[in-house]
UniProtKB/TrEMBL annotation:
GO terms for molecular function: antiporter activity; xenobiotic transmembrane transporter activity. This is MATE efflux family protein. It is a multi-pass membrane protein. The chain crosses the membrane at residues 21-41, 53-77, 98-119, 139-160, 172-193, 199-220, 241-260, 272-295, 316-340, 352-374, 381-401, 407-429. It is found in: Cell membrane.
Amino acid sequence: MVERPVLGGVVVEERVPARRVIGLAAPALGVLAAEPLYVLVDTAVVGHLGALPLAGLAVGGVLFTQVATQLTFLSYGTTARASRLFGAGRRGDAVQEGVQATWLALVAGLLVIGLGQLLAAPAARLLAGDEVAGQAESWLRIALFGAPFVLVTMAGNGWMRGVQDTFRPLRYVLLGNGISAVLCPVLVYGAGWGLEGSAVANVAAQVVSAGFFFRALFVERVPLRPRPELMRAQLGLGRDLVLRSLAFQACFLSAASVAARTSVGAVGAHQIVLQLWTFLALVLDSLAIAAQAIVGQALGAHRPEQAKRFAWQVTGYGLVFGVLLGVVFAALAGVIPPLFTTDPAVLGEVPHAWWFFVALQPVAGVVFALDGVLLGAGDAAFLRTATLLAAGVGFLPLIWASYAYGWGLVGIWAGLSAFMVLRLVPLLLRTRSGRWARVGVVW
């Protein structure tokens, strides 16, 4: 019988039980999948209005997505900090990280509304021709009013994951998005609001979900006043995560712009496959959420060896999960795209991206799992540098070569493939080094 190590009178598990990983990952999967699943429903509803509204949603959606993707530290950074405090037995302090992240979310959300209204028209024109830009602008101006509520939901998810409570966020997000999924076709078709109806339904979902996260903080009975010193510390970690997010978005904005300048059919096809990619990326990211919480707790409790063992354990889970998803979506190649549109120009372009999307799933499974490990360890500076290099060397050159030489979606998705492979290699090397496993509640 193998004797398990004891630390401070507490038995330390050599291997994190799979049921614990699943217990954190399964509800996190529901939360992560809820938003892109709603976007897929939204895409299907708008897609039946025609290729032009679908293209407008594609461009407007990419622009609005910047709100969340540039401020991921509100969720991922908060989880990293809260999980270490939780591992050290300081649950109240972990929740306080959520309070301060919520204040930051409200301030940032109001700034986004103001700046977004000023920049909506020029940003849409930058990414697309006048006809598509007009559709995108009308959708975006309405959707921007949901920005503070999107960010509050991100902050709420962050601290709750940190204290390993992933079931309540699942209920909150599903209720909000469920209401909106019903409301979307009613407003788009029943009320005759068209593309703008989809934006209103979006805002409704965000308001409902954020309301539940506000209530969750109130019932914790912790002080709700702003604490500038904690917010400054969160922003310090957030700086590296924002720069990392900028690299992602420079790539995806460039991809949307090149697709929009290729043809209406190409941008519609890119929207469909990109939303499926986003959906599956977040499905795979459920393992990263579990990894963040478990690694952060282990390091906060001064158990670095457990954190290192778990890093490879979750890598194996990610690889298997990615292979399964790739097989499933390869089998459904002729079934899924017609669910989103009947436009022959769009359907004709889909295969140019589809097989890249399928082949990348195993790579994505490993990359996202290791992202979670390093985010849980607070190793944001390394993730920033690795992502910037992969974007600058892989994704962006191939996207703009695609525009220059007319490669279309094949060039765009080849760029995404290069980006993922160039992220995979340094993540594996960093994880093997073990230098990320720094213990304690700060880094």
